[in-house]
């Protein structure tokens, strides 16, 4: 097992030597331009090294690429080596490194995995409240936004000096950043205490001429543009992290930008609570008594029809299943709750009066249809009675006529 590990490390070492000799474009290897800041280079290295990590990608090409990325970062993260590489290319860098030992593969792995390397400090997190529309939270969208932050000066690459030649080793601490100060503890007894160098502020270097662009501040103001991917059903207050996109500094790694996403407040319209949506629909008094059918335009533009027969009490809530918010990172939807607001008119028109009068008459059990039927029945009865009376009168008349004729016949016989 030990022989296999040594063989692997030796292979990587040989590959590293081959990469150095090949004259690679280190900027192209990391995917950055020649004016990239130290923070940009560090970010690119982290991304590329994760992609070609030997423990995650076991192909021979990935291993060679990982060595190449490590070499590129080693050169471009060192201001002295980078300056030589920019001026004289890799041949000049070779001459500069002549007589020096090639990078130790053990140290390379140790630094990469963080085994012996002290973890670099991370800058503060930048928390921003960000509003999107409820429609974006319902359907999903890509929303652009801008953030003002500080980035390393492109001219001096965060050194604060006008040029690399203006950076000198501090004479007060000989580049150590600290001094040993002799202090008396007791009479006749002294102790040495290590303190931060007051001449260089602990950096070990001093600047003779400051950068004209950042005036020695090492950072400049910058407005960065980003895109937020709003996922359908994203919860209120959901936090989206943009790693390493906060303020930059040569003293620490950039912190994270955290967007706390909320839907913008609007008057009226849809309201949200978790996966449920709420809507208030206004109806008239005639609709509250006789029923209605209304169309509601949903957040995605669809038409949702709500209807109700019979009476509707003020404040009545109707549940429309499956028309709420999408379930975040899941399937299905919540429900839509429609609350009805009944509005009484200030005046009643004739048409509305008649409509309501008929409605109340039906509810009282004496609707117009029933009245007409009864009237017809009464008329029919009257007609039948009149006809019977007429027939009786005609019969009586005939009998009377017969009686008058009979006495005359009797007289003739006599």
> How many strands, which pairing sense, and closed or not: the largest β-sheet?
4 strands, mixed
Lateral strand order in the biggest sheet: 10-11-15-14
Contiguous low-pLDDT stretches (5 residues minimum) are 12-22, 366-374, 408-414
CATH fold-level assignment of the largest domain: Helix Hairpins
Helix content: 25-40%
Helix tally?
10
Note the gap between the termini: 166 Å
Chain-averaged pLDDT: 77
- Beta-strand percentage range: 25-35%
Give the second-level CATH assignment, the architecture of the largest domain.
Answer: Orthogonal Bundle
Number of domains: 4
Structural class: alpha+beta
Keywords: Chaperone, Metal-binding, Repeat, Signal, Zinc, Zinc-finger
Pfam families: DnaJ, DnaJ_C, DnaJ_CXXCXGXG
Signal peptide: 1-22
GO molecular function: ATP binding; Hsp70 protein binding; unfolded protein binding; zinc ion binding
Please explain how this structure is put together.
Keywords: Chaperone, Metal-binding, Repeat, Signal, Zinc, Zinc-finger. Residues 140-223 form the CR-type domain. Residues 362-414 are annotated as: Disordered. With 414 residues, the chain is of the alpha+beta class. The protein has four domains: 2-113, Orthogonal Bundle (Helix Hairpins), CATH 1.10.287.110; 122-158 and 219-265, Urease metallochaperone UreE, N-terminal domain (HSP40/DNAj peptide-binding domain, Sandwich); 164-208, Chaperone, DNAj Protein, Chain A, CATH 2.10.230.10; 271-363, Urease metallochaperone UreE, N-terminal domain (HSP40/DNAj peptide-binding domain), CATH 2.60.260.20. The chain contains ten helices and 15 strands. The strands form six sheets. A four-stranded mixed β-sheet has the order 10-11-15-14. A three-stranded mixed β-sheet has the order 1-9-8. The protein has a two-stranded antiparallel sheet with strand order 2-7. The longest helix is centred in the C-terminal third of the chain and has 46 residues, at 368-413.
